[in-house]
Amino acid sequence: MIKKYFYLLAIGLIWGSQFLFQQAAVNDLPPVWVGAGRATVGALTLITLTILFGIKSEGRRLGTFNFIALLEATIPFVLIAWGQQYLDTAVTAILMGTIPFFTIILSPLVIRGSRITPAGITSVIIGFCGLLLLFYPQLTSNTGHSSLLAALAIIIASGCFATGLLMLKKINDEHPIIVARNVLTCSSIQLLIVASLFQAPWTLELTSASATSVLYLGVMCAGVVYFLYMALIAQAGPVFASMNNYLVPLIGVILGALVNHEILPSTAWLALGVIVAALAINQLFDRAAPKATA
Predict the structure, then answer these.
(1) Which of 106, 101, 81 is nearest to 168 (CA)?
(2) Which of 164, 184, 258, 280 could form a disulfide with 71 if both were Cys (CB 3.0 to 4.6 A apart)?
(3) Alpha carbon 29 to chain centroid, angstroms
């Protein structure tokens, strides 16, 4: 019984801490190389885990995995890293909390028979109000254009990530860890090619801080955390596991305040509360809805 709460807290801490390490990484490295490093280290971590636990693949979908990798990892890893050059870690964490709203909106387009429920549309509207609260100062003062563009980049990344997650639901004949391994492997190849065209790897000025950050992002935030997430689903079910959506933005905001000494305006804290409340509305009132099949 206690184990599932340990898993949930560990997942929330790992995913919530990614914003701190990502910000440290982009201080020294181009965003595209931060994404490439994260995907490559994550893929190697999951390859190692599949070997250690003897998890084997059942089939091949190279084209499908490459497309999902583009949405699930390649685009988000780069856009989030780029956006963090202009945003506090806490604001980034709040913006990433919008992923469930995109899954609600996009699920009818990706999953056959899926529909947007009244609880779903209500949570999306409330979540959008939370975003307006978050950027109310910039919107009313016509300042902070860089931060607004960065926020848009992270929101686009959230939408891509949500689409990739929905597409992953259509793959049901592979072990989830194999799926994650294949996605990150395809993404690492894509990103290494693009990053090398952008800047040759031997010209990078890698510091101990940026190297440590990229290793943490890959090993923990793209590798180990997915293994823990699968263990939590097996232990407590997907509904309980989805509660990490509440923890990640909250932990990201708290760590930003404690570690980076970020001071958020009251509107940002209010926005966090509104977004978490929107997630709660969807989860509490939509549980009884029939599930669609892929």
Answers:
(1) 106
(2) 164
(3) 20
What is the secondary structure of 247-266 as a DSSP string?
Answer: HHHHHHHHHHHHHS-----H
Q: Is 289 helix (H, G, I), strand (E, B) or coil?
A: coil
Please state the domain extents for the chain.
2-285
By C-alpha distance, which of 227, 217, 229 is closest to 181?
227
In the block, tokens 């499908």 appear at 64
Beta-carbon neighbour count of residue 288 at 10 Å?
7
Question: H helices of 145-207, where?
Answer: 145-168, 176-198
Q: Give 291's DSSP letter.
A: P
Q: Which of 99, 162, 149, 86 shows the shortest CA–CA distance to 127?
A: 99
The whole-chain average pLDDT of the chain stands at 86
Predicted confidence (pLDDT) per residue in 8-64, tens digit:
899 999 999 999 999 999 999 999 999 999 999 999 999 999 999 898 886 678 889
Indicate if the pLDDT at residue 166 is higher than 50: yes
Q: Which residues contact 291 (CB under 8 A, 6 or more apart)?
A: none
Q: Is the pTM of this model over 0.90?
A: no
